[in-house]
Every structure is written in C-alpha cells, then in structure tokens.
Amino acid sequence: MSFSNLEQLYRQVIMDHYKNPRNKGILEADGYHSVHLKNPTCGDDVTVQVKIADGKITDIRHEGTGCSICCSSASVMSQTLRDKTLSDAQVLTDNFYEIVKGQPFNEELDMGDAPVYMGVAKFPARVKCATIAWKACETAVAEAVATAKTLA
C-alpha cells in the first residue's frame, strides 16, 4: 500500500470515529469520575468520565466539541483503554503520546485504531488536539484512584 493510500485510510478511520463516536455521552450514575479539559487556542472542549473497579477501567465515556482530530481521538481512546488495568492503560496512553509526537513506539501493543494519528506529528499544533481526551482520562483515573484511597 502506498503512503498516500495509507494516509487516505487513516483519514477514513479518523472521520468514521468523528462521525460515529464510540462511548459518547456522559452518564449520571454513581461510581463515575469526570474531568473536563479545554484548549482555548483551538476550541477543543472535552469531558471524559471513567468508572474503575478492581484496578480496571470498566467504563469510559466522553463528551465534547472540537475538531475532527480531538473528537475522533476521544472515541479511539475510549475503545483502546476500556477494560484495561490501570497500569496497562497508562502504558497504552504513554505509547499513544509517542505515536502523536512521531517518536518510536511499541508496535507490539494492541493500540486499536490509535496509530492512525501518526501523521499528527507533522502538525505540532494538532498534537494537543489528539491528546486532550487522553490527558483528561489520565487525570480522571488519577483523581478516582486518589479519591478511593482517601475513602478507604
């Protein structure tokens, strides 16, 4: 497959997640922890909600507005990190950051559709768009874990 065909495929995957987001919609339910992040430079505005049980992300939801990269990446993140242990989720998140920065990354990990964001590295201003939902999830997990420890 030529590079331009691969880029076209990646665009199609991104647009599919943008137009048909997975796990979209915040729930009004107990046991969820939400984090809201906004990037005032480009207008991306995302809320990510996680539910953690037995050291695992059992559910992950997102809601927000922004560019196709931001919104599709939130969908991909929700699929990639759902049902993962907290340590596995952190490894996958760190690997995603390497992908979007154009750095070498662990291709052995099951990243789902996340590698389609490789091209973002060519547009440094768009790295924040691709990572904002992942940062919100990372923060939500950390806050939920800290809250659980203080309650224990």
- The number of E-state strands comes to 3
The biggest beta sheet reads: 3 strands, antiparallel
Let me know the average pLDDT.
94
Q: Tell me the fraction of residues in β-strands, as a range.
A: 15-25%
Task: Please tell me about this protein's structure.
The chain is an alpha+beta fold and 152 residues long. The protein has one domain: Sufe protein. Chain: A. It has four helices and three strands, in the order αβββααα. The protein has a three-stranded antiparallel sheet. Helix 1 (3-19) crosses helix 2 and helix 3 (86-100) packs antiparallel against helix 4 (127-151).
Q: How would you describe this structure in keywords?
A:
single chain, 152 residues, alpha+beta, Sufe protein. Chain: A, three-stranded antiparallel beta sheet, 4 helices, 47% helix
Q: Could you provide a short overview of the structure?
A:
This protein is α+β, with helices and mostly antiparallel strands.
Record the SSE blueprint.
Layout: H1 3-19, E1 32-39, E2 44-53, E3 56-65, H2 68-81, H3 86-100, H4 127-151
Antiparallel strand pairs: 1-2, 2-3
Helix pairs in contact: 1-2, 2-4, 3-4
